[in-house]
Amino acid sequence: MSTSPAESKNDTLKTSGVNPEKTAESIKNIAKSIREASAKMRETVRTLRESGAIDEITQAVYEATVAARDTAKELNDAAKDLKERGIIKDTAAAVEQTTMVARETVEIIRDTARQTAEAAPHTTETVKEAASKVKSKAKHSGKS
After folding, report:
1. pLDDT by residue (tens digit) across 59-75?
2. Rounded Cα distance, 144 and 134, in Å
């Protein structure tokens, strides 16, 4: 018995597990879900519009945008003013000068520390001798 191409296609669909009736039903269910979601979306938008929520959020975004614009403009104006008055350049120069003075100070402190370390043995000896003389004089004056 010979089969037509349509019958052959149906046999292939049945053997591959694809059921045309189930597929059609799935498409109908999808379409129904889309219609329901669209209706819910329309209702949500209507409710948001009627409640004034859309106007509120729009106004809030506008105000935030204006505030950001105004702040950026003020910062720009302040930066231009500082630049024109030379404050930025002067500040950079002052930082550079401070750094140089700090380096010189560190070198002076290092030299002083080194000199102190070199003089310390002599100083210790001198202090011991002076203390010994003071003790000796105190003993002699206490005996008299």
Report:
1. 999 999 999 999 999 99
2. 16
